[in-house]
Amino acid sequence: MARGSEELALDLGGDKNRRVLTVSQLNAQVHELLEASFPELWVEGEVSNCKAYPSGHTYLTLKDEKSQVRAVLFKGASYGLKFKLQDGLKVLARGRVTSYEPRGELQLVLSAVEPREKGALQLALEQLKAKLAAEGLFAEERKKPLPPYPRMVGVVTSGQGAAVRDVLNILSRRWPGLEIRVWPVKVQGEGAAAEIAAAVRGFNTLAPDTDVLLVGRGGGSIEDLWAFNEEPVARAIAESRIPIISCVGHETDWTIADFVADVRAPTPSAAAELAVPEKAALLDRVVELDDAMAQTLRDRLEDLSRRLAYAAGHPLLQDPRRLWERRAQRVDEFSGRLAPALRRALERAELHLKAAAGRLDAISPLKVLGRGYAIAQSRGVLLRRPSQVKAGDPVDVRLAEGEIHCEVTT
């Protein structure tokens, strides 16, 4: 029987040449073998079971149609990752083959990950945009209006370059005497997003009397503008109590900051024009309105003067007695008609009253009593039959003249 190395040989016939390994020793040898046998390589697969831990490490599985392998992206390597790893992404991952000794599992320790179907920056942009939109940070109802006549304007941009010079020149030209505060920051590269976010929060804390804030930079590649696509900048803009105009890049450049800001300007120069009106144009407009108001007042006074002149020439105003003479005559005319009308009305009423009195007299009970009839009552009840009373009951008899008080005897 052929034998291998001494360490792995097994003598089925006895114990003296048998080498027994513990599980830990076996896993350690496999680990060393894997580490020594494989250089760093690229693996293509789909991300699944992806989970980021508070430590900053991310654990995941890479799989294809037939197999899968566990992988880990440690915190130090994740700093260069622009997008967020999530289940379902197809990626190219670079790493070294190793094992996790406690469980004896094969795994990849990743040093870089690239999206397979989209660029890393584009994917990161889409992921953050979807996240912030879901939180309502792009909603129109949360955006603040710009003040029409600001007294103080803040600018967050690079302290060097054409953008800040253009903004200062336009603001000063459009509104001479305007107070302008500039907070210079890095606008690209490592640490730029943190500086921009700190400047926005700094204005809100240290200069809350700022009326409007311009945040941006001149144009560049997507990499150059990337600081304005990062979450800290978006959060700072969303939290700002000062209205913010985002002005990043050129006309066609859009960043996350543009979606979160209260107003988006295509360029820093355009932002300066949006921030303040042109004082000279406003003064011209004031002059126009002043002239228009004066002309309106003159036209109104002329119209009132014409109406007054017409009224003054009216006969009634020239001789006011005419106002009451005609009315006094009408009163007399109505008075003359009133007396005959009242007399005729009273005569008709008198005739109706006499006729009614005659009808009442004809049916009066007193007329009946006058012909010899009487009305008998007992305790207020009209008597029609003898059975209504009994011996001893009082009876009142009403005659045509007077009453008789009787008592029933039988």
**Total strand segments:** 14
Number of helices: 12
Annotated CATH topology of the largest domain: Rossmann fold
| Radius of gyration of CA atoms, rounded to a whole number | 55 Å
In round numbers, the mean pLDDT is: 86
H-E string: HEEEHEEHEHEHEHEHEHHHHHEEEE
Describe the structure.
- With 410 residues, the chain is α/β, with parallel strands linked by helices.
- The protein folds into three domains: 23-117, Nucleic acid-binding proteins (OB fold (Dihydrolipoamide Acetyltransferase, E2P), Beta Barrel), CATH 2.40.50.140; 126-277, Succinyl-CoA synthetase domains (Rossmann fold, 3-Layer(aba) Sandwich); 367-407, no CATH class.
- It contains twelve helices and 14 strands.
- It has helices at 23-37, 75-78, 120-134, 162-174, 192-206, 231-239, 256-260, 268-275, 279-312, 315-318, 322-362, 365-370; strands at residues 41-52, 58-63, 68-73, 90-100, 105-115, 152-157, 179-184, 212-217, 244-248, 263-264, 375-378, 381-382, 394-398, 403-407.
- The chain has a five-stranded mixed beta barrel with strand order 1-2-3-5-4. Strands 7-6-8-9-10 form a five-stranded parallel β-sheet, with helices on both faces.
- β13 and β14 form a beta hairpin.
- α4 (162-174) packs parallel to α8 (268-275) and α5 runs parallel beside α6.
- The protein starts with 22 loop residues before the first helix and ends with a strand.
- Mean pLDDT is 86; it is low at 1-13.
